[in-house]
Design brief:
The chain is an alpha/beta fold. The protein folds into two domains: 108 residues, Alpha-Beta Complex (Aspartate Aminotransferase, domain 1), CATH 3.90.1150; 260 residues, Type I PLP-dependent aspartate aminotransferase-like (Major domain) (Aspartate Aminotransferase, domain 2). 37% of the residues lie in helices and 16% in strands. The strands form four sheets. The chain has a seven-stranded mixed sheet with strand order 2-8-7-6-5-3-4, sandwiched between helices.
Length: 443
């Protein structure tokens, strides 16, 4: 494959003539003239390989490394070096998609093992071969619930990630689904359970994020009881690392569980790539989006792996397709698999406990020094909202970033969403507290 398009001027003239146009611009005649750039693009002179390398190093040296105390759906967890090493092996890194089982056994087995581990994690029967990210997984889960229950209404807690909410509204706009939001209690930060039951009339599903966007743990036992009573599907969006400490979705009778898998071995990388985790009960597998890899035996009795279920429109009749998801995040799924293989059940539990302990340590310090106070009373895992004293969150963030710390997410006014992972040392946490005390004291 050439790194350029090898068409000659003569080739292009022939193609344009065949198309009945005189120029490439004429092919784009439906695009208004004012949308085209009018002028020359100022490009630097060509550089040698050595000069390019030197230039890139100069640019890279301008990057500023921050100690990250922000979450909101993407978390700065430690990624063991072996995850990078295995994921970058050419047999994985260059593989595309396993359409031909006879030459894709390695890739298929990776997906099968990934599915198995996520099913073990959630306690649900089946997991698909991954979604694009947590947000699109949620959108697909709600569409799946509508297909199963045949009711075009869903009920969603306002405790979900606001960026997920935007994606959901886009996904459900096409089929014209009705979305009813249930507010959260301003004191506890938990979904207002008292308002759920009435909202569920004629609904297909109830969606809860646990822990929610504010880091607060929801009353899942009570929520699950209401969902069962109203005969709606219960959907939970979970934080994967938290399952090292909290109950599995299956313990609450959850029908579909989704998550953003980035905390499991995927670097923040300036915003991606991500991977959506999607699990459900066996009885609903035919309505599950994406695809499913299964284990089988060939005619010689050897174990093998095949794509067992493919419900996207490229593989079955369009009207029967559950989704147009066109690729699984296979390389990201591999990273998740390696990460979980390394840590195991006990290791994941340890990571979760460390994050929990350090988050509570930070909050206690901030409150004891009168730097900030909790915004919500509900129990939390490793993420919490604070009300800063005497300073707006935006200004606080700017001043902390100058000191090398990204302190959290601005929720407006003096509210800040703070997250602590096992990667943050007690020394870094104490530095956060000391700088916070200094900045708040200056205002």
């Amino acid at each position: 494959m050439h790194p350029f398009i090898p068409n000659t001027d003569e080739d292009r003239d022939k193609m344009l003539k065949e198309l009945g146009v005189s120029s490439f611009r004429e092919l784009l005649k439906d695009i208004p003239d004012d949308l085209f750039y009018d002028g020359e693009i100022e490009l630097e002179d060509a550089l040698s390989e050595q000069e390019v390398e030197a230039l890139l190093k100069d640019i890279a040296s301008m990057n500023k490394t921050l100690k990250v105390f922000a979450g909101g759906g993407a978390y700065d967890h430690y990624v063991p070096k072996v995850v990078d090493y295995i994921a970058k092996r050419p047999e994985f890194y260059t593989a595309y998609t396993p359409y031909q089982a006879e030459v894709s056994q390695g890739t298929l087995r990776v997906i099968f093992e990934f599915q198995t581990m996520i099913s073990n994690l959630t306690g649900l029967d089946v997991t698909n071969a991954s979604m694009y990210d947590g947000a699109s997984a949620l959108g697909e889960a709600l569409l799946m619930a509508i297909r199963i229950k045949r009711k075009n209404k869903v009920v969603i807690s306002k405790g979900i990630n606001p960026r997920y909410r935007e994606v959901i509204e886009t996904y459900l706009d096409g089929p014209g689904a009705e979305i009813v939001y249930v507010d959260y209690d301003k004191e506890s930060g938990m979904t207002d359970v008292e308002k759920i039951e009435d909202a569920l009339k004629d609904a297909s599903a109830l969606l809860i994020q646990h822990p929610n966007y504010f880091g607060v743990l929801e009353d899942m036992e009570r929520v699950a009881s209401i969902a069962k009573k109203q005969d709606v599907l219960l959907l939970q969006h979970y934080y994967p690392t938290a399952l090292g400490l909290l109950k599995k979705p299956s313990c609450y009778g959850v029908d579909i569980a989704t998550a953003e898998g980035q905390p499991f071995g995927i670097h923040l990388n300036f915003g991606g790539p991500y991977i959506g985790l999607f699990s459900t009960k066996k009885e609903y597998v035919r309505q599950m989006p994406g695809r499913l890899v299964g284990e089988t035996i060939d005619i010689n009795g050897n174990k093998g792996y095949v794509m067992t279920l493919q419900t996207r429109e490229q593989h079955i009749r369009r009207e029967r397709a559950t989704s147009n998801i066109c690729s699984n995040q296979n390389l990201c799924a591999l990273r998740v698999l390696v990460y979980l293989s390394i840590y195991g059940k006990k290791g994941l539990s340890k990571v979760a406990k460390i994050a929990f302990t350090k988050a509570h340590y930070l909050l206690d310090k901030l409150e004891s020094l009168d730097v900030a106070h909790r915004a919500f009373k509900g129990a939390f895992f490793n993420e919490f909202v604070i009300n800063l004293n005497n300073i707006e969150a935006a200004e606080f963030i700017d001043k902390m970033v100058e000191k090398g710390i990204f302190p959290g997410i601005d929720l407006g006014g003096n509210r800040l969403l703070v997250a602590v992972t096992e990667k943050r040392s007690f020394k870094e946490i104490d530095e956060y507290v000391e700088l916070s005390k200094q900045i708040v004291g200056e205002n």
